[in-house]
Every structure is written in structure tokens, then in C-alpha cells.
């Protein structure tokens, strides 16, 4: 199903879709950095995006507040403020020269849904809270889900003073202060949002891969967010030697040993995938030592990265153990040594079955076909789910992938997602 063949948008949602289209145009203009847009975490582009959304929320009649770390909070009040709120949100930063929709689509959709309810005078039992979350993209500060973890007091207390932005070298604390925010809550491990005050969390987001385009579907319900085992610098140490003088059996070739492990992982991945397991594996950076490598030299040093992801935490552990066993076998066979270095682990996040069912029903009622898929990329939603907050994600069709200026979300697909979200809100808000 193409965007042009989707069911017609309900007339009452047209003003909300027009608002969203206008916001995307203004976001692009405010953060244009050819090619694409740049909205650096705790920088000028992110600041402009937050200000733009805050102004639009005020114009729509929402209450607007900004907390100590810069989280934008846009609230449509319900009848009973004592009830936990339904929360919709995502991030407003981007990668350098990225696309206009990654992250922003979720905040804009939440705001459009709230504006729709405000315009029509729809009353609800509980608050609808829209969050513009800070600093999700790891390319700026080397920390997963920095903004959402800070929101719940989950960052290490030293983070403001040890995390440095890659492009400036300045600390998180310095960038926060420059933007008028306070790192003190992070240092104190103090939560600025009580998980008990959140009834559920919904994150609409563009799909960052090709599945929905290939399947001809406008949107998909996310079943879970893959966890990861990441090793940014696996090193293999062998022995440099003359390329023409050493027979194969006596070589301690670090590069061939590293490539052998990568090839073995690819074969193991194919076996597990064929059995129905959810797994993706990537060796993204490969290099020999440029200070000593040469065409006529057997490489004695090889370095590569590994990124392994799955919805299944047990499978991640099993693949990790298999990798180390395979590396040990290659050490014995090839006379080399593997060092996996300091890796990072992120746990998978399961999406709430009840929220998924509500989205599915809303899609059926609106005549919108919805797929189902795991999210291979990490999202702030994982922070909420990890705290036991019922959480869900709705992916939107997006051509040309993500983290590049060619992101291409059709507003008709956005409208389909908006129809699904507003339909589900009827159940969630009460």
C-alpha cells in the first residue's frame, strides 16, 4: 500500500496534520546545515527545536514547562491531576547533517494529537504529557539515552564532569550551563519525573530501516527494542613478519585471525536466524596499525568493532559466550591473542502487550494496516520500559533509512500514524 492509497484522513484530524507539516518545515529551517539538519545535544539546533515546539504548544493551549536539565514538558490537563499521566515523547536532537524526522516525528505527533484534543474540547480523566527529551543521539556525548536516563536520575553522578561532547571537547556540565540548565540533579542522582506518575509511555518514531517500504505498510507496532553487546575495539595481537619469507603454518597473522572470527560469527548468525532467532551482527570498523603496516608485512596487530543485537537477552549472552569460545579456539590455532576490551551492554526492552493491542485495534478501526517488528535501534522508550512503565512504540514508514539527510517520511504516512495514536488515546486517557 502506497501513501497515496491510504484511507482518507478523517476531516477532524486535518488541522492537526497541517500543524505537523508546518512544524516539520519550521524545524528544518531552524536547524538547516547542508546537507541535512544538525541539532546538537545541548547546542543551538536542539535549543531552536525546543523553543519552536514550546511556542506551538502554548498556541495550542497546552501548559508548557522546562525542567532543570532542559526536558520540554507540554501538558494537556485532565480532570484528575492525581492520576498518572499518559506520556508521549521522543528526542529533538539529531546526528550531524542528519534527517529532519528522526526523533522529531514522535514529539510532533504527540503535540499534534494533544492539539487535536484541545481544539475539539475532548475531556479526559488524566493528563496527556508530551515530552521533548534531550540528548538521545550518542554521537554527541558517549552515553546511551542520556536525556531520558537523566530525567529519572539514572546517570552516574560523575557524568556531567566526565562526559565530553565529541565535537567541542567540553563537558556535559559545561554545555548544560551554557544552555541555562543545571547538572546538579544528575550529580545527585535525583529523578525529575517519578515513574509512578507515568501511566504509560508511547514513542512514535520513523522506522530507520527498509522493512515498511518493502512491505508496503504505512506503520508498524514495535514488539521490543533490541538490546546490544557492543565491543568498539576488539584487538588481535599476533606477530609482524616478512610477507614473502614465512610459510602459512608458521604465521601469526592478526588480520586473518580477526577476519576468521568475523566470518564465523556471520555463519553462526545465519544458523540462528534460520531457526527463527532475532539477531543482527555487525563488524563496523576494521583496521591494521597504520604506523607499521605495509604491503610486504604480515600484520601483527588487527582491530575491529562488534555490534550484536537481539530482543532476547539470553541469546545475547549465549552469542557472547560463543564468541569468546571461538576466539579461544582461534588463539590456539593461529598463535594470536584476542582482547575484547571494555564493551557496553544494553538490555532488551519488551513493549507492553496491552498497549500493542490498543494500537492494533485503533488501526483496524481506522482501516490502516499495521505491521509488527522489533526495533534494531535504541530509543528513549527503552529507559521507560526498563523502569517497569508500560511502553509502546509506533514506527512510521520512512524511505532512505535514517541518520542521513535523505530521510523521507510521507505526511500521509504520518497522518495514518496520527489516526492510530489518537484512536488509542481514547482508551488510554479515560
From TrEMBL:
The keyword Metal-binding applies. SUPFAM superfamilies: Bacterial exopeptidase dimerisation domain, Zn-dependent exopeptidases. One of its GO terms (molecular function) is metal ion binding. Binds 2 Zn(2+) ions per subunit. InterPro entries: Amidase_Cbmase (IPR010158), Bact_exopeptidase_dim_dom (IPR036264), Peptidase_M20 (IPR002933). It comes from the Bacteria. Coiled coil: none annotated. Zn(2+) 2 binds at residues 102, 137, 403. Zn(2+) 1 binds at residues 91, 102, 205. It holds the Pfam family Peptidase_M20. Keywords: Hydrolase, Manganese, Metal-binding, Zinc. PANTHER family: ALLANTOATE DEIMINASE-RELATED (PTHR32494). Homodimer. Belongs to the peptidase M20 family. This is Zn-dependent hydrolase. It comes from Teichococcus aestuarii.
